[in-house]
Write a structure and sequence with these properties.
By secondary structure, the chain is mainly alpha-helical. About 70% of the residues lie in helices and about 5% in strands.
Length: about 80
């Protein structure tokens, strides 16, 4: 059985999420997006990662992409594993 941590999200996805969040907080948004994307590939319902992708896009002035990610996160939040 694969070990899962916190709310059914694989630990690998959470590791990538934390790495991305750290990069984002340092203003390294392009790099952060790479890790957030990898996290979402592993755990497509990882709402926090999708939302943070939106924050990165917003910080980069890419508002259409940010809105898309915020809407995706909202949609996931309403009907998936993460609450």
């Amino acid at each position: 059985m694969e070990w899962l941590y916190a709310k059914g999200i694989p630990i690998e996805a959470q590791y990538l999420y934390r790495k991305a969040l750290d990069l984002s907080r340092k203003g390294r948004y392009d790099e952060a997006l790479k890790y957030f994307r990898q996290s979402v590939i592993i755990a497509p319902g990882y709402t926090k990662a999708i939302f943070e992708m939106g924050n990165c896009f917003a910080q980069m002035g890419r508002y259409d992409e940010a809105r898309e990610k915020y809407e995706q996160a909202l949609h996931n939040k309403q009907g998936t594993q993460e609450r």
